[in-house]
Amino acid sequence: MGPHKTTRVDGIDVLRGLAIFFVLMNHVNMRLLHAKVPYTTGLPEQLVSSLVWKGQYAVQMFFALSGFLITMTALRRWGGLARVDVRDFYVLRCARIAPLLLLLLAVLCALHFAHLGDFVVPDGRGGLGRALLAALTFRINVLEAHRGYLPANWDILWSLSVEEVFYLGFPLLCRLPGGGRLLSVVLLGFALIGPFARTVFAHGNEVWQEYSYLGGMDAIAQGCLAAMLCFGRSWSTLALRVLGTLGITILVFSFGCSIFANSLGLARTGLNMTLLALGTCMIAIASSRSGWRRPGFIAPFLLLGQRSYEIYLTHMFVVFAFFNLFVYGVSLSSVPFLFVATVFCAAVLGDLVARFYSEPMNWLLRRQWRGKASLASVVTA
Q: 14, 171, 277, 311: which has the fewest Cβ within 10 Å?
């Protein structure tokens, strides 16, 4: 990780681990469905929904946690959002995000030119050139809304498009006159507009209902507001327990009772994602202020969470590799192994990429561009 110390929050890493787990489960499930493998036959509908259809929920959790971590890090590094150094903020984001993103795009371009079916961007979807430009300008979601879904390794970059467009504006918002109150109003506006972005403003476009900027930025904004509420305030043990319990209850309801929640109209109104982000933020506050330490049996989710960015950008290679092995004559009874092996190997690949590439590059770029120890992470984001 480099010579600088970082502070990790177990509760947040566990949440990120759960989120990347559900992303992996969802993407394996989608490959099986495309191949018409009837592996869910006879299983309870809610169980199937909870385990393998919650990829979008997981990304919403990532958005909320990202907003919380970035804002908390900025508050600790600069002592207040009004004092955020805009240039240093961009340097930090670029050093963290760019190395692995650029490597991924280089690999995807090579695989496209090698004419490997799972990685070729068809002309009807804009072709390689347009996909590459969209990825570099954080417009993958816009391209897909107009042209349809790209190959899966490209498609996952839609969430990065939403996140990084938000962070292009975030330090500028922090420097607005009027102090934290004006920033809070802007962030609250993002939070309130999210449900409308996922429904009314999507105008029936299936892709834009899930991938729009405003439809994801509401969760990031909630995370930012949660960090602002959390920072520098004393919380009683009782208040943190109540907040954490409410947050866990909301997440259990969102994932475990999603069919019932949909019957209440939460999905139709876009409020299901708002509620999920709220619960995530509650847990983030409770875990960061209480110093909660994870019990041993959930250590795997902690490890997944610590490598969530690397796993997210690289996991589709593992999904495709294991799925292609599966479809060549492996029995239906081996489907559970397919899920387990994919999660395990995606975690291993993400860890290797983090240890030997993205983290060294992160620290190298920070030192090269700024040469300041103060740019070390205060909270790992």
A: 171
